[in-house]
Write a structure and sequence with these properties.
The complex is a heterodimer.
Chain A lengths: L6 H16 L9 H12 L4 H11 L3 H8 L13 E6 L2 H19 L5 E2 L5 E6 L11 E3 L2 E3 L4 H12 L16 H8 L15 H13 L23
Parallel strand pairs in A: 1-3
Antiparallel strand pairs in A: 1-4, 2-3, 4-5
Chain B lengths: L20 H6 L4 H7 L3 H11 L11 H6 L10 E6 L9 H7 L1 H15 L3 E6 L4 H16 L15 E6 L9 H8 L23 E5 H13 L1 H5 L9 E8 L5 E6 L4 H7 L9 E5 L19 H6 L8 E6 L4 H15 L5 H18 L5 H14 L6 H26 L7 H4 L13 H4 L10
Parallel strand pairs in B: 1-2, 1-4, 2-3, 5-8
Antiparallel strand pairs in B: 5-6, 7-8
Helix pairs in contact in B: 2-6, 2-9, 3-6, 5-6, 5-7, 6-9, 13-14, 13-16, 14-15, 14-16, 15-16
The chains are: A alpha+beta, B alpha/beta.
Amino acid sequence: MIEPYQGAKLERLTADAATVLARYPEQPRSALLPLLHLVQSEDGYVSPDGIAFCAWTLGLTTAEVSAVATFYTQYKRHPNGEYTVGVCTNTLCAVMGGDAIFEELSEHLGVGQDETTSDGAITLERVECNAACDYAPVMMVNWEFFDNQTPASATSVADRLRAGEPVAPTRGASSVCSFRAMSRVLAGFPDGRADEGIGAGGPTLAGLRLAKEKGWHAPTQPERPDAETGHDPSKEA
Amino acid sequence: MAITLTPVLTARWDTERSWTLDAYREAGGYDALRTALAMDPADVVAAVKSSGLRGRGGAGFPTGMKWGFLPAPDGGPRYLVVNADESEPGTCKDIPLLLADPHLLIEGAIITAYAIGCHHAFVFVRGEVLHVYRRLLAAVQQANDAGLLGSDVLGSGYDLELTVHAGAGAYISGEETALLDSLEGLRGQPRMKPPFPAVAGLYGRPTVVNNVESIACIPSIISGGADWFRSMGTEKSTGFGLFSLSGHVTRPGQYEAPLGITLRKLLEMAGGVRSGHTLKFWTPGGSSTPLFTAQHLDVPLDYESVAAAGSMLGTRALQIFDDTTCVVRAITRWQEFYAHESCGKCTPCREGTYWMKQILARIEHGRGTTADLDTLLDVCDNILGRAFCALGDGATSTVTSGIALFREEFEAHVTGGGCPFDPVASAAFDYVPRGARTDVKAMSGSGAGTVLR
């Protein structure tokens, strides 16, 4: 159910848009990508009203806004599910099992690429490399990391999402948020969850742990003159 | 002395709440900023020049020289844009850095902005990493509250705003001029060069675009000095870098080492290729770099040596594939990626990747001919050096090198009427395949447009 852009909704969005625009004092048009995320956070996709709102806010035509919205894969032209479940099927993840995970999920959910389950819970996608190759095969749920997946773990995540249970990514917030909540963060409105979750997973720390175990380190940095006092330890007698 | 790992960028990643300002300061964070602010900006540029640091985003252009290309100040704005749009297949270094240690990037960005006379800097982070964007937003807020950003940074009189901007899903936005168009609210398509961003970049003003890892090196160069930085790496490829091992390797992950380390040494550190298997092929720097095989295990991973051996150091994205992997499947999938991500601006790339994807798919599924191999090489010849930006060139890398190294395997798909490999054998888990892959279209994604016969 998409409410028209009027009344309280329009007021709220206009205020949010002003906050976004303030980040780009040199050129308002730089706000277009965050504004498109913002309208997705309202409507669950880039709706015709959303496009008109962006155009009106920035003094562009709707054609100019549509041209941008259709260029980027994160902007949805149809109402998205509550959760985008994206399986990386770029080469490395595909070979490591991503293809099998996608096939299993597709069969399990009864939907194909870029289709949404009938309950509106999940939109299934093949995604490109998401910079987590050392955790392959990788699945993203609303762009949170689910590392080292198997067909069984992936279908379990999907089932729990559809049942409305809180589901925690392996690296990310303590539970995945909705597509709309995610879109609002991507528009630049913090949700206060930055301190949730871990800093680094196992593979991220693989080299550091080995270095510590072996006593390896970079060469020690020379002491430098103190910037404030001008004291230079290298000139001590 | 034997070459070892040298954690500098990675050194704090295992600390408690490593992403917070408190943890970063506890480990000496922002001391380099104080040092830099007491220096003349030109001396900061000179220090980075003399460190020999080369861009860590793939191209390897000397960072200090890039800064030095900015024209003399004319009173108008100058910009720093940090490229955090990490999307090259296999590349997975900047995203974990930002998740674990966002203040390292922010400190580097402040020092860089100070050096080039910039008062509004941007971090362009890909939109598909929600938690990284959360951490960056929070870190910038903390830095603002602590007087590290905003007006009068640390009482120095220097002002800097830092805006973190989320992209929306487009590999091409990692190309520096496409990134600038994207940041200006346009379709992310590359610009004609010259003029280079140093002269006419963001909003037509002098702009430096640097990769996350390049910027993250800056604080340690300021605190340790250029000579310290140069004491690692090789003469022309100085310093340390993140080597990202992925795929069929026992302990995949981030290994920070001096440039010039070999894959043989890195594999030894990572526990070797997956047990019971041997190395078949690998990418030294992501999917846009020509493939290497076991015969390249001892190539020093520095810019010059990798280039001399016929590939590119790129982003040190070491994707490891063992003997169970079908090279045709691997290359076909990469080509689908390039076709999907081609921005459509120039004909060689738009049409070339589209047709190569289809030719490769029919070869993979046993419907190709041996003449298709020559067609592929001919298409590559028509893209390489003729595309508008490096995306097109990159799309040809694994095709030409793959056919050169594994021509018999391509031919076996043609003569054998299909793929001789079992995909189950190369997966990280055991599973029962869901029937034969009869529907090529379904495997290639709905938009792939694979030719079916």
